[in-house]
Specification:
By secondary structure, this protein is α+β, with helices and mostly antiparallel strands. A four-stranded antiparallel β-sheet has the order 1-2-3-4. A hairpin with a 4-residue loop joins strand 3 and strand 4. Helix 1 runs antiparallel to helix 2 and helix 2 crosses helix 4.
Length: 206
């Protein structure tokens, strides 16, 4: 028994699914330029050409770091300047301190000689030649003797001012000479490299 043949409909004919040779789709069936079948569109679509600025070799160029060389040079110069200032202050303080100690030592030794009755030695050792022309040795010895000094007298300095100009040192010593039962106002002026006395004042208070 044979199966009856059912004729195929035109839309069921497999040959109808193929375009006959020489026949092509109409132009409107082709995608427009820049559009491709399967291209994704939507809020997360990849950016198109031109979305990013061009970079050499196709890689982004990192921003150039600012040079700190100039900053370090300035900081170094400031540090060097401050170091020089500090060294200068220390040196100056040492010089002033040394000169002050020297002037005080000379004053102490001069006073020690005159209170111990050694006025002649004090005159020979510490008097400036310029002062000796106006204050003779005899007059100096007589003047010290008239003060009635004795070896209990002790100097107390209120100020010791030192200076130097063109290699010439100066010292102005002000204070009191305190003896048993009396006090004298004291003022010595020294001058020269080896600090020789060019002025002296010893007067009882009151």
């Amino acid at each position: 028994m044979s199966t009856p043949q059912v004729p195929l409909q035109p839309d069921q004919d497999p040959r109808a699914q193929f375009t006959p040779p020489g026949q092509y789709p109409a132009p409107e069936q082709y995608p427009a330029p820049g559009q491709y079948p399967g291209a994704y569109s939507g809020p997360y679509a990849p950016p198109g050409p031109g979305a990013y600025p061009p970079h050499p070799y196709g890689m982004p160029v990192p921003p150039r770091k600012k040079s700190r060389k100039l900053l370090w040079i300035i900081l170094g110069a400031v540090a060097a300047f401050l170091a020089l200032v500090i060294v200068g202050v220390v040196v100056l303080a040492n010089l002033v301190g040394s000169a002050t100690n020297r002037a005080q030592a000379v004053s102490n030794d001069f006073t020690r000689l005159i209170v111990n009755g050694q006025s002649s030695q004090a005159y020979d050792q510490y008097m400036n030649p310029a002062l000796t022309r106006s204050l003779t040795k005899d007059k100096f010895i007589a003047g010290i003797a008239g003060l009635g000094l004795e070896n209990t007298c002790r100097p107390h300095y209120d100020s010791v001012n030192v200076g130097s100009f063109n290699g010439n040192n100066t010292a102005d010593v002000v204070g009191t000479l305190q003896c048993q039962g009396k006090t004298l106002d004291l003022r010595y002026n020294f001058e020269g490299t080896d600090l020789k006395m060019d002025a002296i004042s010893l007067q009882p208070q009151g």
